[in-house]
Amino acid sequence: MWRKVLAGAGFALQPWRTTAYRRSSSVSSAVNSILLRSLKEHYLEVSKMTPPPKVSPPSPFTIVKGAIDGSGPVLKRTYGDEEISIYVMRLANIIPGGGNDDDDGINQLFLHVDVSKPGQNDSLHFLCGLYPDAVGIHSVSMRPKLQSSGFLVVPSKYNGPVFEDLDERMRDALHGYIAERGVNESLFPFLQAWLYVKDHRNLMRWFKSVGSLINERKDASEN
Ligand SMILES: *[C@@H]1O[C@H](CO)[C@@H](O)[C@H](O)[C@H]1NC(C)=O
Ligand SMILES: *[C@@H]1O[C@H](CO)[C@@H](O)[C@H](O)[C@H]1NC(C)=O
Known about the structure:
It is a single chain. This protein is an alpha+beta fold. The protein contains 6 helices and 6 strands, in the order H-H-E-E-E-H-H-E-E-E-H-H. Strands 1-2-3-4-5-6 form a 6-stranded antiparallel β-sheet. Strand 4 (about 110-115) and strand 5 form a beta hairpin. Bound molecules: 2-acetamido-2-deoxy-beta-D-glucopyranose (2 copies). It comes from Nyssa sinensis.
């Protein structure tokens, strides 16, 4: 798979080695050139990769414009007067190195489902694990509507009961509630493909922006 190719090419997965460099401008500019050349080579290599085939989101979900370059919701739909928003992340992006090099890591996505209603200040918020063949709920909580834009916002409010502690009928009913709104494993292929594209764009941008910062510093010190 595509991500495997990236991983196989040795990007991002190598732990940083701490290397002591002497502070000397000639050493540092030699290091800069090596680094810039390497960034450029990797950039070109990655830019030649063929993206995975386009997958459409399951209807009636639609892709949120600009989502690929932002950190907001990826998919939206309406359900009656409700607005359902879906955010997605890989486990490996939340816990660095978490499941990065096995299939479990690749096949586990974090889904964050937000159900909001007009006139309500808070929205109902489900944190879920999404797998190719299942959806599991981790937590259910109420969150202020406007703060629903990221996974990494530490909730200052009550985060809901431990889901496993709820009785089975309530857990089943909560699963039924999101399933009724189209949140099920059918979302997996689209979200997986979408994350590949997003990772690719982020990687390309990283090569570029790291390169231009290093260039910039070199130019400034020569002035
Ligand atoms: C929403 O927030 C506003 C302003 O804080 C408040 O006046 C209003 O009563 C709240 N509405 C609900 C439904 O909680
Ligand atoms: C997922 O939900 C959609 C919309 O409700 C439905 O059409 C589809 O059959 C469901 N998929 C599965 C695997 O349950």
